[in-house]
Design brief:
Blueprint: E1 2-6, E2 12-16, E3 22-26, H1 29-40, E4 46-55, E5 60-69, H2 75-85, E6 90-92, H3 98-106, E7 114-118, E8 124-129, E9 145-150, E10 166-170, E11 173-177, H4 184-195, E12 199-202, H5 205-220, E13 235-236, E14 240-244, E15 247-251, E16 255-256, E17 261-264, H6 269-286, H7 290-295, H8 298-313, H9 330-336, E18 342-343, E19 348-358, H10 361-368, H11 401-422, H12 425-449, H13 459-482, E20 486-491, E21 494-498, H14 504-518, E22 522-535, E23 543-552, E24 557-560, H15 571-584, H16 590-613, E25 623-626, H17 639-649, E26 659-664, E27 676-678, H18 690-708, H19 734-738
Parallel strand pairs: 9-12, 12-17
Antiparallel strand pairs: 1-2, 3-5, 3-6, 4-5, 7-8, 9-10, 10-11, 13-16, 14-15, 18-20, 19-21, 19-22, 20-21, 22-23, 23-24, 25-26, 26-27
C-alpha cells in the first residue's frame, strides 16, 4: 500500500506499508476443499485457512475459507478467480475498497494525525493513530490548494460548446491561460510543477478541464503528469446515465489523481453543500478515500460505516443484498407498505406559528428502538415486543449494526451543535459544515434500509421505522390538541401548531411534553411571525404539503415549493422572488403584510420594465433542464428537445440525465427551432421572448398575491360545495371511469 503523508511544515512523504487484505468463501465442504487445494498451489500470491465468521441474519457461526491476497492491487481479481472456480461458492468481503480495508485493519483514516516509523527506503515499520474520527475540533493538515476554473458562467457545462480561458488561483493570486499566448497545457504544467499543490479544487475539472489539458499536452508531445506520485497513472472513469427512483440521472466521468487530491465542485454533492470542512468530516468518519468520498453518494458512506462495524464484529459482508422480503398476505402488505404520515395544511395566512421538529427522527427511531435490518423479526427472540400496526418483532439480545452507526453520528452532531453556539463566527461556520455533512449521512441511512442494493438492507426494517414514525406523529398531534393547540400542518417528522396568544415558552413546554411521551428528541425549529400555506398550482383551493413560505422571529425566511427553490428557474425570477420575500419578511401581521405586498408590486414592476427595455443580462434568462433521453429519441418538439437537438447538431455529445441550458427566443413561433436557443450557441441577434419571460415573472409573483385574494379554505369530504359533485371536479375526474 502507498501512503502520502504531510507534516506540520508542509513536507511530503511517500511511504509504503505491507498489507494483506482477505476475503471469505462459503460453500459445501467438498467445494471449499477443492478451492483450498487450488489456492495452495498459488502460494506465492495467496494464503488460505479454514476459519469461522458470523452470519448476520442467522446470528450464528459459519465455516468459511479465508483467502489472504499478498498483493493488494490484485485483491478484486482473485475474488473474480474464485467466482470462475465455482459458481456455487459464495463470497464475502471480496469487493470492498482496499483503501478502506487498510484503514479498518490499521485503525487509521484519511486526514488522521498519525505517528510513523519508517526505514530509509520509505517502508513503514510501525504506524499509530494519534487521532479519532469522533473528535469534534481536530487539527487539519496544512494543505496547499490550487483552484482551477473557466471564465464565465460557472454553472454552464463547458462541454456544450463554450471554451473560455482557464483561470488558476493559489492563495489569492490568479493566472489566466488562453490560446492567445502560451498553450494552456504548457502554462498549467509550469504552474503545477512550481507551486506543487496538495489539492486541486476545480469546476468542471473531471469532465472538461483536466481531460482537455491532457489532450493538448499529448498533441504538443510533452508529458503533463497531474500526479505527484510519478509511479502512478491518472485514473479516468467513464461517464454513465442511470435510473434512480424513477428519475434518469447522469454521473460525469471522474479524474482521480495520486499523491494529491482533486475535487470537482460540479461533480461533488458533499463539497458543493458543505465545502471542504464537510468533505473532510465525511472522509474521516466513513474512512473512504477523499477523492472517492467527494464523488460518491452519502449512502455509500453509510454502507462503509456499517461494513466497518461488521468487519470488527467478525460478521460476513455479502457481495450483494441477499435477504429477500418476507412473504406477506395482501392485507399485511397494505398495512406495511406505507410511508410517513401527512396532515394537509390549513391554507392561508396564520400568525405566530411554531414548527416542532423531531430531531433526526428516523435515525433517532433506529437508535432508540434498536431497529436495524438484522434485528427485525430475528430468529432468536420470538416473544420480543412488537412494532405498532405491523406485529414485527425487534431483537432483545443484540444491538443492531445500523443502530450503532446512527447512534454515534447523532451524538457527534449534537455535540457539534453545542460547540457551534459558543464559538467565534469562523469556527462556528466550520462546525456547522461538519454538522451538515453528518446530516446528509443520517438522511440517507433510513432509505438504505429499504434500498434494493443495500448489503444490509431489509424492507421490513424500513417499514418498521415508518410505522413507529406514524405512531409518534399521531401521539404528538393528540398531545398538542389536548393542550388547546390547533394543528395547522404535519409532515412526517414536523408539526406546525398554533394557539391564540401562545408564547415561545408555551411552545417550549409543549415540545417537552411531547418529547417525554414519545421518548424521541423534539426541538422548536422556529416560532414564525407568520406562515402562508399555498394551494396546488394546478387546483386552486386544494392544499399541498410542500408549498409555503414562513418568516421566523429573526426575519429569516423558510421557503418550500416556490420557483426560487427549483434548479431550472432563470436567475431573473429567482432574484425577484428573493427580493420580494425580503420585503414581506418585514411584516408582523396580516395588515402589515398587505402593506409590504404593495412595495413588492413595485419590485415586480421594476423587473418588468427592465425586461421590456432589454436591460437584462442574457445569463439571467437561462433556463436549465435535465434531458431524459438522447436528443434523437425525442418524439415531440418540446423546448428541451429542441435545445438538445441544437446542441447535438453542433457536435455536442449528450447523455440522458445531463442538464442543458437555453434561452426562450419565441415561444409561439410556428418554426420549432426558433422557439428556444441553446445557451452555448447563443448569439445576440436572436433576442429573447419578452412576453414569455414577463408571464413567468407574473407567475412567480402570484403566490404572494394569493394571500390578499383570500385563499379559499379546503372543504372536507363531508361538506361539498353547494351544487357541486366531487366526481365532476378535475382532481377526481378519474373516478368517473372507475364508477
Amino acid at each position: 500500500m502507498t501512503l502520502w503523508l504531510i507534516d506540520r511544515n508542509q513536507a511530503h512523504y511517500r511511504l509504503t506499508d505491507s498489507f494483506t487484505p482477505a476475503f471469505f468463501v462459503s460453500g459445501s465442504e467438498e467445494g471449499l476443499a477443492h478451492l483450498q487445494d487450488a489456492a495452495q498451489k498459488q502460494a506465492a500470491k495467496l494464503r488460505v485457512r479454514l476459519t469461522e465468521r458470523t452470519d448476520l441474519w442467522l446470528n450464528a457461526q459459519r465455516k468459511v475459507l479465508e483467502v489472504s491476497v499478498l498483493a493488494p492491487t490484485e485483491f478484486v481479481g482473485w475474488g473474480q478467480w474464485v467466482h470462475r472456480f465455482g459458481s456455487r461458492l459464495q463470497l464475502y468481503n471480496s469487493d470492498l475498497m482496499v483503501a478502506s480495508l487498510y484503514c479498518w485493519e490499521k485503525r487509521v483514516f484519511p486526514l488522521a494525525l498519525v505517528e510513523v516509523a519508517a526505514d530509509e527506503e520509505g517502508r513503514i515499520q510501525a504506524i499509530e493513530c494519534r487521532d479519532s474520527e469522533w473528535t469534534l475540533d481536530y487539527e487539519m493538515p496544512p494543505l496547499k490548494i490550487m483552484q482551477i476554473r473557466l471564465t464565465g458562467c460557472s454553472g454552464i457545462d463547458p462541454a456544450h460548446g463554450q471554451r473560455p480561458a482557464l483561470e488558476v488561483e493559489i492563495d489569492g493570486t490568479c493566472w489566466e491561460l488562453d490560446e492567445s499566448g502560451e498553450p494552456p497545457a504548457l502554462g498549467f504544467a509550469h504552474l503545477l510543477k512550481r507551486e506543487d499543490p496538495d489539492v486541486i479544487l476545480s469546476e468542471w475539472g473531471d469532465s472538461t478541464i483536466l481531460p482537455l489539458l491532457r489532450q493538448q499536452a499529448e498533441r504538443l508531445k510533452f508529458s503533463l503528469n497531474l500526479n505527484r506520485d510519478q509511479a502512478a497513472s491518472v485514473q479516468q472513469s467513464r461517464a454513465r446515465s442511470y435510473m434512480s427512483y424513477g428519475r434518469i440521472l447522469f454521473k460525469a466521468s471522474a479524474t482521480t489523481l495520486f499523491g494529491r487530491i482533486h475535487v470537482d465542485k460540479q461533480n461533488s454533492f458533499i463539497s458543493e453543500k458543505c465545502d471542504f470542512a464537510g468533505l473532510w468530516e465525511l472522509a474521516r468518519v466513513t474512512k473512504l478515500p477523499i477523492q472517492y468520498a467527494a464523488r460518491t453518494t452519502t449512502g455509500t458512506g453509510i454502507s462503509y460505516m456499517q461494513m466497518e462495524l461488521a468487519h470488527r464484529d467478525g460478521v460476513l459482508i455479502p457481495e450483494q443484498k441477499a435477504e429477500p422480503e418476507d412473504p406477506k398476505q395482501l392485507d399485511e402488505l397494505l398495512a406495511a407498505d406505507r410511508g410517513g404520515l401527512v396532515f394537509v395544511p390549513k391554507l392561508g395566512f396564520t400568525p405566530n406559528v411554531a414548527e416542532l421538529d423531531f430531531v433526526s427522527q428516523f435515525p433517532s427511531i433506529m437508535a432508540r428502538f434498536n431497529i436495524s435490518p438484522e434485528t427485525v423479526n430475528c430468529p432468536c427472540c420470538p416473544d420480543a415486543p412488537r412494532i405498532p400496526e405491523l406485529d414485527y418483532r425487534i431483537c432483545q439480545k443484540r444491538r443492531g449494526i445500523t443502530s450503532r452507526v446512527v447512534e454515534r453520528l447523532i451524538a457527534k452532531r449534537t455535540e457539534l451543535k453545542k460547540l457551534q453556539k459558543v464559538s467565534a463566527p469562523d469556527l462556528a461556520l466550520r462546525f456547522k459544515l461538519q454538522r451538515d455533512s453528518l446530516k446528509w449521512l443520517l438522511v440517507c441511512c433510513f432509505g438504505y434500509t429499504g434500498y434494493k442494493n443495500a448489503r444490509f438492507g431489509k424492507i421490513e426494517a424500513h417499514e418498521a421505522i415508518n410505522a413507529v414514525a406514524r405512531e409518534t406523529l399521531l401521539v404528538a398531534k393528540e398531545i398538542a390538541e389536548s393542550r388547546g393547540y390547533e394543528l395547522l400542518h404535519a409532515l412526517v417528522d414536523s408539526l406546525y401548531v398554533w394557539k391564540e396568544g401562545a408564547t415561545h415558552d408555551d411552545y417550549e413546554k409543549l415540545a417537552r411534553d411531547i418529547e417525554d411521551q414519545t421518548r424521541l428528541p423534539l426541538a422548536i425549529e422556529s416560532v414564525y411571525r407568520y406562515v402562508v400555506f399555498l394551494p396546488s398550482k394546478q387546483y386552486q383551493g386544494v392544499p399541498v404539503p410542500n408549498r409555503f413560505f414562513a418568516v421566523g422571529e429573526d426575519g429569516e425566511v423558510k421557503i418550500r415549493g416556490l420557483e426560487c427553490r427549483r434548479h431550472d428557474t432563470p436567475p431573473l425570477l429567482n432574484r425577484m422572488q428573493h427580493e420580494v420575500l425580503s420585503i414581506l419578511a418585514e411584516a408582523h401581521d396580516y395588515d402589515s403584510y398587505l402593506q409590504k405586498l404593495e412595495v413588492g408590486r413595485t419590485v415586480l414592476a421594476a423587473y418588468e420594465e427592465r425586461l421590456a427595455s432589454g436591460d437584462v443580462e442574457i445569463k439571467d434568462l437561462v433556463v436549465s433542464k435535465r434531458i431524459t433521453r438522447g436528443p434523437r429519441d425525442y418524439q415531440k418538439a418540446g423546448v428541451t428537445a429542441i435545445a438538445a437537438q441544437q446542441l447535438f447538431g453542433s457536435g455536442v455529445k449528450l447523455r440522458p440525465g445531463q442538464n442543458i441550458e437555453y434561452i426562450i427566443t419565441d415561444s409561439e413561433s410556428a418554426v420549432p427551432n426558433d422557439r428556444v436557443r441553446a445557451f452555448a450557441l447563443w448569439e445576440g441577434c436572436f433576442g429573447y421572448d419578452r412576453k414569455k419571460y414577463a408571464a413567468m415573472l407574473h407567475e412567480a409573483f402570484q403566490p404572494f398575491e394569493l394571500v390578499a385574494a383570500e385563499i379559499p379554505q379546503q372543504n372536507g369530504p363531508d361538506e361539498p360545495p353547494a351544487g357541486q359533485d366531487w366526481v365532476d371536479t378535475p382532481l377526481f375526474a378519474c373516478l368517473k371511469s372507475i364508477v
